[in-house]
Amino acid sequence: MDLGAFNREITINFTSQVALVHAVLPHLLKRSGPSSLIFTGTPVTIIPAFPMPSYCASKAALETFLICLREQLQDTNVEVQHISPGPVRTELHDADMGKNAGPKFGMALEEFVNEAWAGLVAGEADIYPGCVGGSTKEQWLELVKLRDEAVARMSGLLRKMMK
């Protein structure tokens, strides 16, 4: 494993996002109107893909941070929105999969944009365009539902303890 490459991925996908929130959040909280922080995640935060451990770990850290941030900001004017698509057909896959397989991998870009935009306009906190390889959208959403219910239980317990 290239530890330098691993750390760069953590910085790009996680640490830099935390730094950005740290920089802009005070300004957003001072605004009188609503604001949103919008992040892009991935289903590999819950169902990791073994060839990409640094990517999966960095995005899982980001998703955990977003869940906590959303809870912390629940009584403010700042919303935290999270778009977590399955694979999207872009040139990013060509380097790893080749020019024949890469362009066929994932959902069409237009489909992703339409689903993500519809979720943003509807004000959804979590938007899940597409699905995870090997799982149906229903299977994926069941995992997310179970996780979200557990987070709600934990948050409720912690809020009671903090009073």
What key attributes describe this structure?
single chain; 163 residues; mainly alpha; 3-stranded parallel beta sheet; 3 strands; globular
Write the layout of secondary structure elements.
Layout lengths: L2 H28 L4 E6 L12 H20 L5 E6 L8 H10 L7 H13 L4 E2 L9 H26 L1
Describe this entry's structure for a reader:
The chain is mainly alpha-helical and 163 residues long. 60% of the residues lie in helices and 9% in strands. It is built from 5 helices and 3 strands, in the order αβαβααβα. It has a 3-stranded parallel β-sheet. α1 (3-30) runs parallel beside α2 (53-72). The model has no long low-confidence stretch (mean pLDDT 91).
Strand content: 5-15%
Q: Can you list the strand order of the major beta sheet?
A: 1-2-3
Summarize the biggest pleated sheet. 3 strands, parallel
E-strand count? 3
Ranges where pLDDT stays below 50 over 5 or more residues in a row are none
State the secondary-structure class.
Answer: mainly alpha
Q: Could you tell me the radius of gyration in angstroms? A: 17 Å
Q: Could you tell me how far the N terminus lies from the C terminus, measured between alpha carbons in angstroms?
A: 45 Å
Order of helices and strands: HEHEHHEH
Cα shape: globular
Helix amount = 55-70%
The count of helical stretches stands at 5
